[in-house]
Amino acid sequence: MAHYKAADSKREQFRQYLEKSGVLDVLTKVLVALYEEPEKPNSALDFLKHHLGASAPENPELEALRLELAEMKEKYEAVLEENKTLKSKLAQYEPPQDEKHGE
């Protein structure tokens, strides 16, 4: 009987761990979403994987990459604008291209 209580105690500790870490909440929400789906997906496992992946916490590296992408987009726009400005300045000093040289 002591072995049975030890197993129960471990099981209860594990359940509490899952509850504190939010795992039970997330699993419950995903299973409820699957239950409420009007048309059940062919693969319940794929449904769970998709929805669990979507609710995963953000990876700090992912956020750093998003910031870097935003910075690169700003730099790209600035370079495009600078290029446009320089082309218009250059056009002032070049002869029109449809005039032929020497004719």
TrEMBL record:
The gene is MYCBP. It is found in: Nucleus. Keywords: Coiled coil, Nucleus. It comes from Lepidothrix coronata. Belongs to the AMY1 family. The keyword Nucleus applies. Residues 62-89 form a coiled coil. GO terms for cellular component: nucleus. GO terms for molecular function: transcription coactivator activity. This is c-Myc-binding protein. The keyword Transferase does not apply. InterPro entries: AMY1 (IPR026060). Its main location: nucleus.
